[in-house]
Structures are given as structure tokens and as C-alpha cells.
Amino acid sequence: LSPETVLEPHPSLIITSITDFGQSGPHRHFHGTDMIGYAMGGMLYRAGAPHRPPVVSPGSHAYDAASISAAFATLMAVYRRLWSSRGQWLDISVQEATANLADWSVPFFSTLGNYVHRDGAGSYPVFRCADGWIRLIVLAPRQWRALRAWMGEPEELQDPELDAFIQRMANRGRIDPLVQRFFEKHDLTFHALID
Q: Which of 24, 36, 123, 185 could form a disulfide with 32 if both were Cys (CB 3.0 to 4.6 A apart)?
């Protein structure tokens, strides 16, 4: 029972299919898993320290990416049907959805031909806690100020230039040890919202 067969007598129907490699691509007959979708979507190549083998992220990253893509596409199809009265078949590939939500390595390669290699935590450092690890992504000045406040406003971090992300990147040698000392005193049940 193909989607085309169902759509012919019911042209306003919206059908969303999610498969590992899509219904029409060169790998459409391959079987996949979340980890295969993660790898073939380009994420495994980028995950982990450069001197070690790649690592898979926790959870179900690829299937989550496909689910989010399918939900969004379906909502857009419903919106389109409001003014066109036409349904459609949405063919969601786990591999493609993962590649669409991947970091910049896929666009860098597809537009510039550049390979971006693994760089571990990269711009977003990982810090040791008393019972695990935490990764911080602090981009906006308000997030930086909230982190500083959470840490008790250390004097060494009060330079207004550090409000700029690029300045924090340039000064990670002095910032990261302070943040590390702060987090190593707390376990993962210690929460705060940096918003």
C-alpha cells in the first residue's frame, strides 16, 4: 500500500513516513538504527576527542532529529492544506534529518569542500563535577553574566570585554580553571537556570 495509492482517492490526506534512509534514496533498502543514522548523518564523524575514536551521543539523537523534522514538516503540510486543500506525502529520512541538524561540518563541506575534524568539546568546554561532567554553552552576554553571578562574581571575571563571546574564547586559559573549580564542588543535582 504505497502513499501514492492512498493519496489518489484521498487528495487532502497528509501522510508522513519516517524511515532510516527515506523511501527513494540510494540506501532506501538498508536497515538502520539510531547509531547508524547518527553516523551516516555526519554526527559521529564530529563527536569525540581528535586523538580518540568517535563517540555516540547519549539518547536517541538521530531518531529524535527525524521525529522533530517529521512533526515540523507535518505542521507545515497542514498549514499548506488550509489554503490549497491538497494533502501530500512527506518522506522523512533519519539520515537526512540528522545531517540537517548537524553542526557546521556538513555545510562547510557541501559549500566550501572543507573537512572539519573532531575537536573534542571545541567552543563549548566540558567540566568535571563531583559525580559526572557538565558541558556549558554560554553565548549571549546575559548568559555570561548569569554564570558569573552563579559563581559568586569572581573578581577575575569582571572585565567588561569578557561579555563578548570571542573575548571569552581568547581568554579560556584564565576562565576555564575558575569555572572548573566552581563545578567540581557540586554534583549533577545542583541546578541553576542560565537564561
A: 36
What pLDDT, on the 0 to 100 scale, is given for residue 3?
87
Q: In angstroms, rounded to a whole number, what is the distance separating the alpha carbons of residues 53 and 154?
A: 37
Q: How far apart are CA 79 and CA 86, in angstroms?
A: 10
88 phi, psi to nearest 5 deg: -170, 165
Rg (CA), the chain: 22
Beta-strand relationship, 132-135 and 14-19: unpaired
Q: With CA atoms as reference, report the closest residue to 179 among 141, 142, 150.
A: 150
Instruction: Please state the φ and ψ torsions of residue 59, each to the nearest 5 degrees.
Output: 85, -150
Provide the 3-class DSSP secondary structure of residue 152: coil
121-158 pLDDT per residue, tens: 667 788 888 888 888 889 999 999 999 999 999 999 99
Distance in angstroms (rounded) separating the CA atoms of residues 103 and 106 = 7
How many angstroms separate the CA atoms of 114 and 94, rounded? 24
Provide CB contacts within 8 A for 34, sequence distance 6+. Answer: 60, 61, 62, 63, 94
